[in-house]
Design goal:
Length: 269
């Protein structure tokens, strides 16, 4: 088999896991070995199982999965750190004669691994100021602030995603240039890859998302969030704002009804 790296990317609910498992089984059937490397930002976290649709061990068909359950709930997840972890794991597998299959719906994470992204340095003092402003005024205020500096970046980030807004503001304020200017002019692959991109029209995808989100609530997403609170879930800069988890927390706090939490999760997914 000529390719030594595969990737399966696409929106939530398009069938990435099923395809990746099928590819791995085929590779194994022809005398080689394949293993899966997770590229879902929230599946990195221990304890975040239901809301991330993390495959149980019994459903992984004997295929080893990497970069799942590697972060504590209070640790911050960033694309830059993921890039380092994922590339190190991919190289380790390849050196062992194993073909990695990168799988996930966190497009920035997958792209940061597969392409020649170089992330701007951080300014911890500025970051602290922006995070304090986010806590005091909320994500909508920060989104408006970003729109004043970089309309294109603001249009690509949902107003509820305070963490991504803060990172975009940090980059714009450090570099003095639009957020997109921090990305490479020409996309070049980190190494050769056979990439499968799964697409589905929104009207076809929506019923699947509704069914998926309803199942998450039926399986106990709210209870899962409640169980994570003693471990510092509320203070997490990354985990607590994940789609589904933020809404479940809102339901726990009485800010949203169950119906509102479910509807919001479907809309944002």
């Amino acid at each position: 088999m000529s390719s030594q790296l595969f990737a399966v990317v696409g929106a939530t609910g398009t069938g990435k896991s099923e395809l990746a498992l099928g590819i791995a089984e085929y590779i194994n059937s022809v005398g080689q070995k394949a293993e899966i490397v997770n590229a879902d930002a929230m599946q990195l976290y221990k304890g975040m199982d239901i809301g991330t649709a993390k495959l149980p061990l019994v459903e992984r068909r004997g295929i080893t999965h990497h970069l799942i359950d590697v972060l504590e709930i209070t640790q911050e997840s960033t694309a830059a750190e993921y890039q380092r972890l994922a590339r190190a794991k991919i190289l380790q597998l390849q050196e062992s004669g194993i073909i990695p299959i990168l799988v996930g719906g966190s497009m920035l994470y997958a792209a940061s691994c597969l392409n020649n992204f170089e992330f701007p340095d951080r300014d911890q003092e500025l970051r602290a100021q922006l995070e304090a402003e986010l806590i005091e005024h909320g994500p909508l205020h920060m989104h408006k602030k970003l729109a004043e500096l970089d309309q294109i970046a603001a249009s690509r980030i949902i107003p509820e995603n305070g963490r991504r807004i803060v990172r975009a503001l940090e980059i714009v304020m450090i570099t003095g240039e639009p957020f997109a200017a921090s990305l490479p002019d020409e996309i070049e692959s980190w190494q050769p890859v056979l990439e499968f991109g799964l697409r589905m029209e929104r009207e076809q995808l929506l019923p699947r998302l509704e069914k998926r989100v309803l199942k998450m609530w039926e399986q106990g997403l709210v209870e899962e969030v409640a169980s994570l609170i003693p471990s510092g879930f509320r203070d997490s800069k990354t985990a607590s704002v994940a789609i589904g988890y933020a809404q479940a927390l809102g339901e726990l706090d009485g800010e949203l009804t169950r119906e509102e939490a479910i509807a919001s999760t479907v809309q944002l997914t």
